Amino acid sequence: MLPESHSAIVARNEPWSGSVATEPYEVGWAHEAIIFVRALAVSGAGAAEARVQISPDGMHWADEGTRFALPSNTAEVTYARVRHFGLWLRIAADLPDGLALKVLVSIALKA
Amino acid sequence: MNPDELQTLRFADPRLSRFDPLPRIITLDDFDRGFCGWTQLVGNYEHTLDAMLPGYAQHSAAMLSSASAWEFGSHGGFDGTYSLKLATKPKKGGQNVAIKRLTFRKRGPIRLEFYFTFKPEASELRLGEAEIRSVGFLYDLQSGDADADSLRVMPHMRFLNALDGVHEQKWQFKRRTMALKPLGNEGKTFTHYHLSPNDWEDLPGGHQRLCYNEIPTKINWHYARFDFDLASWQATRFQCNDRVFDLSGYEPIVIPGMRNLWCMLNLAFFVETDTDKRAFMYVDGVCLSGDF
Known about the structure:
- The complex is a heterodimer of chains A (about 110) and B (about 290).
- The mean pLDDT of chain A is about 95.
- Chain A contains no helices and nine strands.
- Chain A is mainly beta.
- In chain A, the strands form two sheets. In chain A, strands 2, 3, 5, 6 and 8 form a five-stranded antiparallel β-sheet that branches. A four-stranded antiparallel β-sheet of chain A has the order 1-9-4-7, with no helix packed on it.
- Chain A has a single domain (about 5-110), classed as Jelly Rolls (Sandwich).
- With about 290 residues, chain B is mainly beta.
- Chain B has one domain (about 25-215, about 220-290): Sandwich (Jelly Rolls).
- In chain B, strands 2, 7, 9, 10, 11, 12, 15, 19 and 20 form a nine-stranded antiparallel β-sheet that branches.
- In chain B, a hairpin with a 4-residue loop joins strand 16 and strand 17 (about 235-240).
- Chains A and B meet through strand 1 and strand 3 of A and strand 3 and strand 4 of B.
């Protein structure tokens, strides 16, 4: 059987401002992930980073160490490659005052 | 092959012997083989995602889950490690839907069988048996383009576990939905939120107490079977575990056929939360069969 692969849309057209995080997503079957972020709308100015987070249970989260920029305009795609992440993944971010995004976040997973 | 020989062969295969399929197996989904065509139900839109109705906008991706608990580890599936998991957001009334999109080749009897369970997120050390509002399933069907009728038919069934904190534990169905709403300006796309909280009706005699277990992390799998006749658009049998329910009062939603859904055979599972806590539905083993 061919190795499994899957694209999971974990945030679609979701308004982001302040402290935000994607919903917990189970990835225990996968060996590698790329987390992509697109901004479908941007208002205000400023730059923000996303942090990749891992969890033992989908409820308690720790920074995995990977950080990447969130897109600053609607044409940009930003991403992070992650391996060795256990059973759960999400991204979290703290947007500066005045910056608001509508995001599309997808996780490309491969076993 | 006569029916007895077919049954004997199927009983010899553990993957099939837990089901009672009609002669033709259309799908046999085991989530240790991946998602098997189950995906999130995305709402309709035209030109902008902002056009999507809020009920659909909240949906997110189904997962392959090992049903892992914080205090004892992975529960696993009915068979093997993985099951299909639907999760709501942590907001009262939140809902999520997973769907599989097929078409049919004969308008006759079909049978949906599946194993399922449900739990709220175990974020508190208390039972939480009244925190999940419901789990359920539906078909979204439409006549063939050359058929005498032109109908879109949507049988819905949910187990109303709790509503506003009251532990209801009863099966409900829906025969009404909201009016279609046009999207955009091209006259090609419409939407209607058929999973709104409105219009659910009690299935007569539909009270059932399921095995929920005694702490928020232990799960037990339940069997469900729903028979539907695509020729008459009538449900003919509904069973959950040891109970078979009277469907004489059951009706599906019926609306006029739409311009691009001919022979549609969609199946969906859904979960709703009754509190500001995530609700999870797990499905492992889905067998759809037909009499053709």
